[in-house]
Amino acid sequence: MAYGAIAAGAISLLVAIGFGIGAVFYLIEMHYGARAAFAGTGGFFLALGLIGLVSGRVMLSRSAPPVPRPRRQMEMVKRAIAAPVATRLILGSSASGAARVDPVTQSLAAAAAVLLVGWVVAARFKRRPRDED
């Protein structure tokens, strides 16, 4: 609904601009004639178009800002992963009773590992289509 209201508002604004241009054209035509009205409105749109083209060209010629590197996020992920793994390795898996994994999670992890290995093998030994003689 919101996008429809925005679209209707934009279309109405364009129609109002068109009526304004028509009124200016009529005003120029009444005072200076049809040729001056066509020349004035045509020149206005020519200048507007050239300004748009030049400004767009200038914007495109500027270098893009560098892509931000996710260093901080990667450090957070490393800390989040490294701390529990180090704790489990130091204390041993029997020390943490809450870290027991249920059979469903074990089977899903095994299936994911099998799929990963299959994907790597398939990518490694990818067959090329035979050329038909």
Uncertain spans: none
- Label the overall shape: elongated
Q: How many distinct beta strands?
A: 0
Helix content: over 70%
How does the helix and strand content classify structurally?
mainly alpha
Number of helices: 4
Mean pLDDT, to the nearest integer, reads 81
The main β sheet shows up as: none
Order of helices and strands: HHHH
User: Percent of residues in beta strands?
Assistant: under 5%
The termini sit apart by 60 Å
Radius of gyration, whole Å: 34 Å
Describe the structure.
The chain is elongated. The protein has 133 residues and is mainly α. The chain is built from 4 helices and no strands. The protein has helices at 2-32, 34-61, 71-91, 103-124. The model has no long low-confidence stretch (mean pLDDT 81).
Short key terms for the protein model shown above:
mainly alpha, 0% strand
List the helices and strands and how they pair.
Layout: H1 2-32, H2 34-61, H3 71-91, H4 103-124
In short:
By secondary structure, this protein is mostly helical.
